[in-house]
Task: structure prediction
Amino acid sequence: MSLRLGLAWASRGTCVALLAQRGTPASVVGLKGARLASSSTCPDHHYDLVISGGGLVGFAMACSLGHSQRLSDRKILLLEGAPNKPWQLPELFSNRVCALNARTRTFFRKLGVWEHIEHLRAQPVRRMQVWESCSEAMITFDGQEQDDSTIAHIVENDVTLHSIKRQIPEHVEVEYEAKVESYQIPKDTASKVVLTLADGRTISTDLLIGADGAKSLVRRSMGVQYLGWEYDQMGIVATLQLSEAVDNTVAWQRFLPTGPVALLPLSDDHSSLVWSTTREQATQLLGLPDEDFTEALNRAIWDDSEADSGVKSIHEAWLRVLETVVPGESAEIRQLPPSIAQVLPGTRGGFPLGLGHAVHYVSPRVALIGDAAHRVHPLAGQGVNLGFGDVAALTRCLENSVLLGAQLGDEQALYQYEKERQKYNVATMASIDGLYRLYNSASPPLVLLRSLGLSAVNAMSPLKRQIILHAES
Result:
């Protein structure tokens, strides 16, 4: 019998003895009775902190807690449902990437994660150009506010995850292929959270952190109201080979009436595609041969047939006005996006798009992070950055709780985390949803209105700096 299993049986035996002393009928005290007693009154194991759900955000939470000096004496467990597969950097790029902003990079440097990412591969984005198919309006951003002139880095999800895992301290336990059947959430801090696993074990914890995704069982067990909707859109991802090698440090995004298409740099001759479109068109595109898909993508990037001549005329006059009011700012040279030589075989994939937000992120002894708390459209590339922001904020909250002598699951302390993150997350989500709705129409009056507004913002450098600083924070 293993030490772990022996301890579990010893724990169950203690519970059975206690029940017998309290007058529990002998028929209940047996193998099944011992398991029942263990589930209800004496869990097999206890941890100070349990993170339910791995992925990028869950593993980042384990890494952050493990590196906290104020939490160094706490017993921490991460439950991951997927198996622990060996990984090495593949020659070909993965089709799932993140745009890691400046705040995330700073956070990762603190944990020692960023040096691993840089050693593997990460492509800097020094400029971003956004334009649309219904007019000639555009806006550009650069990284002048950053020391390295970088807006973001495009990093494959697998690279980020592997780098985070390498930095998780040894005292943090990670259990793979761990499926949670249920959570017993207490109504106050007088009781602990109890998790029941699929193999029958039970675990109690002072604080449960839900990092189990958009369909979070932790959130449902909390009874928290969840507001959200589907966009009737799908996101298509793929890895692209460019027609020629270039200084590929520009992120391109073009808004089509059906949704935005974005090219994110991976190397001098490769980019990652994130194309949001209707479910019907996505199904068609995913069913095309690689050559036909490449042709359709190049049309989406280059075709100007949807531009309205009336809007174009008024917009040109508006640019002349802006040039008079803000000389030199509105006459920015438009760069031409790269053309695509081919989509790499086997790299296309699709996923549904939607928005969701938990009314509360916390309850006694429970906190939600990442997609379990919020879900956004990928058009701004902020989803995972919001999750990493949750991790940093919750770590600070727990460190302050320890410093002040409060319990880890104290609801009032956790509310400070909720207040901080909801203030930022809700504003970001509202902005992203507003952009989606603003550009989800080809109506000439609306096209004219947004074109005039976009060009005006592009001419106002201080306002553009505020926008990019918010996206980087």
